[in-house]
Amino acid sequence: MFDCALCSLVEELIPKETKVGFRMAKEEPQSISKDLQELQKKLSLLIESIQTNSKVVAFMTSPVGQYLDRHPFLALNLLMFIAMSAVPVGFFLLLVVLTSLAAFVGVILLEGLVISVGGLSLLCILCGLAFISLAMSGTITVSYMVVSSLISYWFSPRPTFSSSVSFIVYAE
Q1: In terms of CB atoms within 10 Å, which end of the chain has fewer, N or C?
Q2: Percentage of the chain exceeding pLDDT 70
Q3: For residues 105 and 112, what is the distance between their CA atoms, to the nearest angstrom?
Q4: Rounded distance, CA 92 to CA 99, Å?
Q5: Which is higher by pLDDT, 10 or 146?
């Protein structure tokens, strides 16, 4: 009973769909054949333009091109390998370029950081040296003045006092 109900359901659905499908296939065969003929003409022109290309002719006359022409299965394998390896090779080259760019930017940033830290360190050292040189110059200048004053005081000609000198005291 289940089989009969399923069979009647299938019989009802299939003829309706196939009638619609056959009608469309019968109505458009001329336009499809014209489209296919036009596509075939375009493809033949494309193949002819490729075969007459000077680089293709030069490759096909080379020993490798002649070998691949005699071994089409190997040529197809080589073509498939090249086509499938284009994406991984492209990703690898992109990774190389991005890594190089990142390293370049990183080196520039690292170099900038090193130059900044080095510049600030040099500024601090030079400021410290300026303070130390100022302090030493001041110390040397003060020492020079003190020593020269002492030397001039010690070795200056002094009046000699004799015993005949009298002191006058004024009394009021």
Answers
A1: C
A2: 75
A3: 10
A4: 10
A5: 146
Contacts by 80-88 with C-beta closer than 8 Å and gap 24+? none
Give Cα 66 distance to the centre of its chain.
42
Write the secondary structure of the chain as one string of H (helix), E (strand) and C (coil). Answer: CHHHHHHHHHHHHHHHHHHHHHHHHHHCHHHHHHHHHHHHHHHHHHHHHHHCCHHHHHHHHCHHHHHHHHCHHHHHHHHHHHHHHHHHHHHHHHHHHHHHHHHHHHHHHHHHHHHHHHHHHHHHHHHHHHHHHHHHHHHHHHHHHHHHHHHHHHCCCCCCCCCCCCCCCCCC
* Cβ-contact 71, 62 below 8 angstroms: no
- Give the residue from 56, 76, 73 showing the smallest Cα distance to 65: 56
Residue type, position 107, single letter: V
pLDDT digits (tens, 9 = 90+) for 67-106: 988 988 888 888 888 888 888 999 999 999 999 888 888 8
pLDDT, averaged across the chain: 80
The residue length of the chain stands at 172
> pLDDT tens digits, residue range 139-155?
999 999 999 999 888 88
